[in-house]
């Protein structure tokens, strides 16, 4: 068996530690042969941003933080929107609520399930199942988002939402 020189081993070790594309690592040896994935910094930050967004979805400032200026958003109905379109809608709702607080729409509550974030350098791809609760009903959507890190913060540059079929409804 040939030994690897100590200097080469050190270079390989240091490369593995600092390579941003290699920062997600599998950890074998978990029960039933499962593999645990250690999340990258970007994956952790994007998931935290998603959860903050869902908790503050009715706040215009949160939308301004979440969406990038060059966003392309495709809603579940197929409509394409920009960040400017979303902000205009948020500002209109805020103005309506300010003019007549009794007509404020709480928008329901939202949660995320089956969240997966994969980081590729300064880009993260997010996939999750949105659970939307409103007026005593629950709807589910599959969402995909692409985030770019710019100036130290992550923002969504692309978004796609697809409504899941309701149980018992054939398409």
Give a structural overview.
By secondary structure, this protein is an alpha+beta fold. It has one domain: Nuclear Transport Factor 2, Chain: A. The protein has four helices and eight strands, in the order H-E-E-H-H-E-E-H-E-E-E-E. The protein has helices at about 5-20, 40-55, 60-65, 85-100; strands spanning about 25, 35, 65-75, 80, 110-120, 125-135, 135-150, 155-165. The strands form two sheets. A six-stranded mixed beta sheet has the order 4-3-8-7-6-5. A hairpin with an 8-residue loop joins strand 1 (about 25) and strand 2 (about 35). The protein is globular and about 45 Å long. The N and C termini lie far apart (about 60 Å).
Percentage of residues in helical conformation: 25-40%
Could you list the spans in which at least 5 consecutive residues all have pLDDT below 50?
7-30
How many H/I helical runs?
4
Any idea what the radius of gyration is? 21 Å
Q: How many discrete structural domains?
A: 1
CATH-derived architecture: Roll
| Shape type | globular
Strand order across the largest sheet: 4-3-8-7-6-5
Helix-strand topology string = HEEHHEEHEEEE
- Number of DSSP-assigned strands: 8
The CATH topology is given as Nuclear Transport Factor 2, Chain: A
Distance between the termini: 61 Å
Name of the level-1 CATH class: Alpha Beta
Please summarize the sheet with the most strands. Answer: 6 strands, mixed
Give the mean pLDDT: 82
